[in-house]
UniProtKB/TrEMBL annotation:
It comes from Acetivibrio thermocellus (strain ATCC 27405 / DSM 1237 / JCM 9322 / NBRC 103400 / NCIMB 10682 / NRRL B-4536 / VPI 7372) (Clostridium thermocellum). It comes from the Bacteria. This is Uncharacterized protein.
């Protein structure tokens, strides 16, 4: 079983579901970058308290956890949108079975489809399961994450215990920022997590090369 650790940075933002609905832009991963920047500027002007939002303790837990993983650097990918996880999945043989452990504020099993992109940040998991129905899924969510979709309650394993990652094995790590739902003043925290993963993967790859 191939293990994929999928991380959406929006999970770590210290804001309730209600606060996100109030403060964050309404949109998707198809908002142009220049427009998104101006939208966030407007949100900061309207809600100055937005700048006080930080990250939850799980952020520091995950930093420590990923340091214990031994992932080759070529098996780590970072991106803005979650839809780009398909770049990892497309590398895997069609007959291989894999498990996605998704740390995310949203379940990403939505039906919606917009624009020209068959995959988007909200439906990528549904697309993966349509194409590879043998895929195993575990969603690590926040306590107040929306657990419903058009099918009813999210139909796969889910938990609000991030420490359950210790029960899993991982071969790949995918990390996305989701800039539509990550206030720009937290970009440095996203990069901090990236550096932690990158340093560990480079260290492991160098150790492996020296042994070879």
């Amino acid at each position: 079983m191939i293990g994929i650790l999928s991380i959406d940075f929006d999970y770590f933002i210290n804001a309730s579901s209600q606060a996100r609905d109030m403060y964050f832009p309404k949109g998707s991963d198809e908002i142009p970058e220049n427009k998104l920047k101006s939208v966030w500027e407007e949100r900061y002007l309207k809600y100055p308290e937005l700048k006080k939002i930080g990250v939850i303790d799980d952020f520091h837990f995950l930093k420590k956890f990923v340091k214990e993983l031994k992932i080759p650097k070529e098996n780590f990918m970072k991106a803005d949108s979650h839809k780009y996880i398909k770049s990892i999945i497309e590398k895997l043989p069609e007959k291989s079975q894999f498990k996605i452990v998704n740390i995310d504020f949203h379940h990403d099993y939505y039906h919606y489809y917009r624009g020209n992109d068959y995959y988007n940040c909200g439906n990528w998991l549904r697309r993966v399961l349509e194409e590879r129905p043998d895929t195993k899924v575990k969603w690590i969510r926040r306590e107040d994450s929306q657990i419903y979709c058009l099918d009813g309650i999210f139909p796969f394993e889910h938990t609000d215990d991030i420490k359950s990652v210790y029960n899993e094995k991982f071969d790949y790590i995918f990390l996305c920022k989701s800039p539509e739902w990550t206030p720009p003043h937290l970009n440095s925290k996203f990069e901090e997590l990236c550096r932690t993963i990158e340093q560990d993967t480079i260290l492991y790859s160098n150790m492996f090369s020296s042994v070879s």
